[in-house]
Automatic annotation (TrEMBL):
Name of this chain's protein: DYH5 protein
One Gene Ontology MF term: dynein intermediate chain binding
Biological source species: Columbina picui
A GO-annotated cellular component: axonemal dynein complex
Single GO biological process annotation from the record: microtubule-based movement
Domain of life, per lineage: Eukaryota
Length: 169
């Protein structure tokens, strides 16, 4: 029982830390007002890396041993642990999936950033078709919040490109 209690204390510390990570990942992002779509891609890359690291840690031999000891002891802390484990898996899957979809837009980021307004407009129909495809097929990216953020960043990039073109011309 003494060992079980110590392990339960360890698990409770991990649960608090993981909950903090999950809460922070869901909070509003602070970004520059004129950030482009590359910032969206970077955000999801970072988030995917963080959650994959967390999943690797949870799946480590050390953690598995602790969990199996607590299972044998029928610890009540495991219910919370399993719920968090599921939430981390969902967050990691979301980040991975969003990365996959955003990479389909990556080919447009260069033309959006470096083209003249005229040549940039040649890419807009294909870009918007890709955004529509993401909206209609992505299980995580099809919310108005996610789409608004993405479209805002695309618009920011187009405005920045036009400003640069006008200042250089």
């Amino acid at each position: 029982t003494e060992v079980t209690e110590k392990l339960e204390e360890v698990i409770m510390i991990w649960i608090k830390q993981i909950r903090r990570v999950l809460v922070e990942s869901e909070q509003m992002r602070r970004e520059a007002g004129d950030s482009g779509p590359s910032a969206e891609l970077e955000h999801w890359k970072t988030r995917m890396s963080s959650f994959n690291s967390l999943l690797d840690e949870i799946k480590s031999t050390r953690v598995k041993k602790i969990i199996s000891i607590l299972q044998a002891a029928r610890s009540k802390t495991l219910k919370q642990w399993k719920e968090l484990d599921g939430n981390i898996t969902i967050a990691a899957n979301e980040a991975k999936d969003n990365m996959r979809y955003l990479y389909t837009l990556d080919r447009f980021f260069g033309p959006l950033a470096k083209a003249s307004p005229v040549t940039m407009m040649e890419h807009v129909p294909s870009l918007m078709n890709t955004v529509c495809m993401i909206y209609s097929t992505s299980p995580y990216y099809n919310t108005s919040e996610r789409m608004t953020s993405l479209l805002l960043k695309i618009t920011n990039q187009m405005i920045n490109t036009c400003k640069t073109y006008l200042c250089e011309g």
